């Protein structure tokens, strides 16, 4: 059974069209990866409330990172992803109803893990209901 982190990862991979350059949790060794790369880090999740319908309301936070050799590429890709995610309406994801997604971005800065690379990120906040199945 997939966790919500895996379900959300798959969803982002499709909606942002970043297959083959996207990782969950952490990156492989820098020597094994491309310069242009995305990765998703789950930051926090908490049970907000239990509804009278016995469904559970959760708040999840993720950091979506992008690395490239160009600051302008980082800023462009992060802004593009932010625009897509901030304009989503209610969606259903394999047993979860996503009620709200909003994100804030940080501009490109030096990636301390890789020489001559820049990194930007989005903080993604998701409110979702786990459906009773």
Keywords:
133 residues, alpha+beta, 21% helix, elongated
Along the chain, the helix and strand elements come as HEEEHEEE
Strand content: over 45%
Strand order of the largest sheet: 1-2-3-6-5-4
Helix content: 10-25%
Mean of residue pLDDT values: 84
**Class computed from helices, strands and strand pairing:** alpha+beta
- Number of helix segments? 2
Largest sheet: 6 strands, mixed
Overall spatial form: elongated
Which spans of ≥5 residues are poorly predicted at pLDDT below 50? Answer: none
Rg, alpha carbons: 16 Å
Distance between the termini: 13 Å
Topology, number of strands: 6
Structure summary:
With 133 residues, this protein is α+β, with helices and mostly antiparallel strands. The chain is 21% helix and 46% strand.
Task: Give a verbal description of the structure.
The chain is an alpha+beta fold and 133 residues long. 21% of the residues lie in helices and 46% in strands. It has two helices and six strands; from the N terminus they run αβββαβββ. It has helices at residues 4-15, 71-86, and strands at residues 22-24, 37-50, 56-68, 91-93, 96-110, 118-130. A six-stranded mixed beta sheet has the order 1-2-3-6-5-4. A hairpin with a 2-residue loop joins strand 4 and strand 5. It starts with a helix and ends with a strand.
């Amino acid at each position: 059974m997939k966790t919500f982190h895996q379900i959300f990862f798959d969803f982002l991979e499709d909606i942002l069209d970043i297959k083959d350059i996207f990782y969950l949790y952490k990156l492989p060794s820098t020597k094994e990866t491309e310069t242009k790369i995305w990765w998703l880090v789950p930051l926090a999740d908490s049970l907000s409330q239990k509804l009278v319908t016995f469904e559970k309301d959760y708040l999840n936070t993720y950091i979506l990172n992008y690395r490239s050799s160009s600051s302008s590429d980082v800023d462009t890709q992060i802004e593009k992803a932010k625009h897509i995610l901030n304009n989503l309406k209610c969606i259903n994801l394999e047993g979860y109803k996503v009620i709200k997604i909003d994100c804030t971005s940080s501009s490109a800065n030096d990636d301390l893990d890789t020489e001559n690379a820049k990194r930007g990120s989005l903080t993604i906040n998701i409110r979702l209901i786990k459906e009773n199945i």
